[in-house]
Structures are given as structure tokens and as C-alpha cells.
Structure of FAD-binding FR-type domain-containing protein:
Amino acid sequence: MGCLTFYGSTKLGTKYWNDYCQKWYDLSLTEDELEESYQYYQDHATDPLASNPDFNSTTDNMTTPLAINGSQALLYRESYQVFLGNYDHSIYYGVGAVSYWFFIFLLAGVANWGFVLLPGLKNFFNGRVSRAWRRYITVPALWSRKRQTQQDFLGGFLSYLVPSRMESLILIVFFWLVFAMLIVEIRYLPNDPLFTAKKEAITRYVADRTGIVATMTVPLLILFGGRNNILQWLTRWSFASFITYHRWIARLMVAMAFVHSICFTALYVMDGIYFEEMAETYVVWGIVATTCGALICFQGLLFLRRAYYETFLVIHIVLAVFFVVGLWQHISLLNYPQLVYPIFAVWGVDRLVRVIRLFWFGFPLAKVELIADDAVKVTVPKPNHWTSIPGGHAWLHFALGWYFWQSHPFTFVEVEEKEGNCIVFYCKVKNGVTKKIGKKLANVPGRTIFMRVGVEGPYGEKSPVSRHSSVTYIAGGNGIPGIFAEALHLGRDVAKRSIQNQKVKLVWILREAKSLSWFIDELKLMLSLPVETTIYITRPDMQDGIEELQSALHKDSMEKVPHSISSSKSVHSADKDEEKELKVKVETEGIEIMEHIRLALPHVEIFEGRPDLSQLIHKDVEEATSSAAFVTCGHPAMVDDVKYTVLRAMDKTEKRIDFYDQLQVWA
């Protein structure tokens, strides 16, 4: 009643006390009873110390209500406003941290979808500011020309990938925003009755703030790291970009959790209750969550991910589960379970959609072949209701024991087979499941088996280049499937729309000729399309594993008799005897294999040696009437070289130039 008297009796105040008595003491009070108590306090409340300085509250009895000291009540009120208000502010700032990202996503979605829905906007936004924005912000890496190439530090133990300047700018702003949110309105109230020392008060406020804000960023981690992230569709950003944000937000979140833990540890030491509090269940689970978060950051180092990816993946998932469970137990015991609900929701939806996608595609019997000793070709019958994305990727599950629970992303090409439409995956034999399948295929006749597979996808988006006057696709090595799928799709679109002034080019850079053996049938699809296809074989002298290519070429030569061959070194067959002589040459080791490749692919220009990327790109820019686009995927060093050359070309023309990196580096 003293507080009601001091601050003024209000309906809200009386309702609060009525609810308070009902909740904690199971006592219902009427408004009349509260009003009577209020009036009694006003009439009889006294301060015993004012009339008796020797009054002892433990031994002396009071027969009247204790009068509230006005100044002391104000001090307590302000102290609780600071203490409890910090919880409110922490929630607000946590919402603000999450809202920052959705603001960024909104801007990205408007910009990128604007160019997709209104392709003409690209040429409109091609002034000095727009060109500078692409040249210096959106395309280049943060501080070097190497964006996709692994950078090594401390002898390679600390390896890293340099984010783009755009990604770095978004992250830097976010980091400073969060830092400001962690310190704003953190203040000490002089003569605070709740905390005896300023250090104790500030430590508690920082502990609460960092813990709450850190917890509210966790749903972002789950969302950004998930495959079924609707934000990828909204922003048209690559999965690799979201993984970059996922890792850096995780590091920031763990840093905040670490500060949260250190602050509470210091408080327990100050209050002399360290051992008692450390034995509390909620503290133990908090330690579990923080420790798992720190271990995830360590075992997620690029060196460890690439050296032991399968092990990394299992440990990563196990630690993530214990992190979320630990967080749930920690804050549920503190009556904050609502902060974890979004985490379970995001994670649950991602897993559910993955399962739905798998069953939506089905588990067909796929043809699995070992080609050129280093590649596995997987031909999967495609259901009619499943729509592929040119340049997209899907996660492939092999029905090979426990390996089925693993999945790996591969780009694919949609082709027509006798049995119907199929999607074809081309998997480089590395470690893990591809190595096991490669060994299995090497020991069976024909190096071909049929195996049930699961396909989860498709994911990704094709590059928005349909309205550029010149489009050049550049693939390196195993980067050809996605690039080829995009070029094939655009080539068919150009042929269908009878576009005369749009040039489409496909450049494939190979190390060895034998790699053609697993893609030669696909290259034939370009024969009737307006796509200028060029292949560079940088080591034509390497004959290891060439027998399979010879077999494929011999089979092809038996099916047709060429009339003309267009290449850098043309070969013309005058009669059947000369053709038979060429076939005999093909079956011997030597440079003749190059001539037979040209025979099988008359619509493809084939060069021996490395291409001059600078000359190639600048030539395409010069030939473009109004705009040029370059889409690339392949070895990271090659992709970085193409990007750097395109960036330099932007400075030398007023034409619209765009660069699209389809290399997905997230492991």
C-alpha cells in the first residue's frame, strides 16, 4: 500500500496487487478490501525510527503499517527499472539484430528480382555509379584477386577463403551494430540498492545482454546453414554466400556466449557462491552449450573441413545437437523457453522439407558408370512432375549401406534417353562415398552397375543473362555440367526466339583429353544450337587413360561419315579408305587422338594449350553490342582469374558487363 500511496492509487496498480495475491498466496481480494487497506495505510502508517531512534525491527513489535521512505522508494524504483529494463532492451536489440538481416534481404530481393523480372533494367543501371558499385563492391574479393582460392596462414593450419567486399561490408556493419547494441543503455545507478558495487552491476547487465542477444541470433545460424532456405530464393544469393554469413555469425554468437559465461563466472566469484552456482543444472547445461559452440568453431576450420570432411560433418551435427539441447535446458530453467522455439521451428522445417523433396523425386534405379578412372557418371530417370533448374544442383544419396544417410551436392544436366528424360550427375572421384563407388565399379564388368539413389533438390538459380547481347560461359575441368546446362538452356531459348544479335559462347578448359569421354554425348547436343563451343586441352600429350576415349570415339565414328570438320586443324576425308586410315591412327598413341576428337565434334573448335583468358574476355566485350555477361565454374584459381580479368574490362568500356560465379565453395 505504501507504493500505491507514494505513486498514486490506480486501477492498474490495484489489479496488479490483486493478481499478485491470487498467484502467490491463493488469496482473492475485492476492490473494496484493497481500497480499505489503502485508506488504512494513509491514516495509520508511521516511521518508527522517527519517534524512536533505538527501534529494533527484530525485537520490537509494530502495531501500525510501516511508512515508505519516499526517496528510498524512488531509488528502488529506478534500480529495478535499470535492472529489469535491461532484459527488455536486450530483447529489443536482439530483434533489431535479426531485423537488420531481413532489411538486407529485402534490398537484395528487390534488386535481384527486379533484374530478373525486368531484364531491361540492367542496361538502364549502367552509369558511373552503377559500374563503380559492381567494379569495387559486389564483384571483387575483400583485399585480393583471390576469392575462391584457399589462402594459407601458419603453414596452412589456418586456411581461409576471402569473402567478397559486399559480404564483408554486410558483416562489418552487422558486427558494429551488434557491438553498439551490447553497450548502449548499460549504466550504473549511484547508490544502487540492488548492487553494492558498480563493477558488479555493469558485469550483470553485460552478462544478461550478451546472453539474450546471442540466443536470438541462433535461428539465423540454423536458417543460413540449411538447404531449404527460402531466403536463397528471395535474394537469389548462392548457398556459398549464406554459408559465409552462417560461419561469421556463429563466431560472433560464440564470442557473445563466451562473454556471457565469463561475466556470470565473475559475479559468482564476487558473491562467494562460485561452487554452489557451478553445480546448478542450468549452469551445467549453459557450459555444455558454450563449449559445443566453441568446438564447432574450431572443428569448422577450413583445413580440418577439407582434410577430414566426412568426420567433420558427423562431429558438426553431433555438436550442433548438443549445443541446441544445452541451450534449451539452460534457458528453459530460467523461464525463457520462447527464445528457443524459433530454433526448433527453423531446424524442423528444413529437415521436413528435405524428406519431402526426397520422396517427391522418389528412389529410382540409376545407371552408375566409372569413366576415365576418375569420374562417376550417374544417370537418373526423372519423374515428369520434377522440374530441373539449368545450372542448379541437387543432393545425391547412394543406396550403399550407411552411406545413404550422407548426401553430396552435384550439378547436373537434363538429357533425353530412350526410356525418357533423365538427369545426369558427374561426380569426381575423391574420398568418402565417391571413392568407395569408384572402387566398386572398377571391379565389375563394363564398370557399370545399377543402384537406387535419392535426389534432393533442385537448388540454385540460373544466371540472369537471357537479355545480354553477349554471354560467355567458361568452365574448367569438372565445372562443366552446371555451365553446360545453362548454355544449353540459353542456346535453345535463343533458337526458339530466333534472336539474331545475341551471341552465346561456351568455353571448356580441360587438362587431359580423356576427360572428354564422360561428356562427349552431351557436347553433341550443341550441334544444332547457336552456341559457339570451344574446348582447350592444356596437356594434350598426356595419354594416360586415353583408351576409354578412343573406344567412345571409335563407336561414334562407326555411326556416321563426316562431310566437313570445323577446327583449328581441319581434317577432310576424301574417301572411305582415307577414313579407315584415320581410324587406325586413332587406335595408336599419339597426337592423332586430337584429330579424331575433331571428327566426332565437328561443331566444336578444339585447341591445344592454355587459353589467353585476358584476350578471350576482352574480345567478347568488344564484340558485344551493348552488354556482356561472363558465367564461370571450375578450378578456384581459374574462376579467380576470370573474375579479375572481367573486373579490369569494366574499367575500359561503357558497356554493361556482369560476372556470375557459379562455383559453390562451402567445404
Observations:
- Residues 560-576, 578-590 have pLDDT under 50 and may be disordered.
- The radius of gyration is 34 Å.
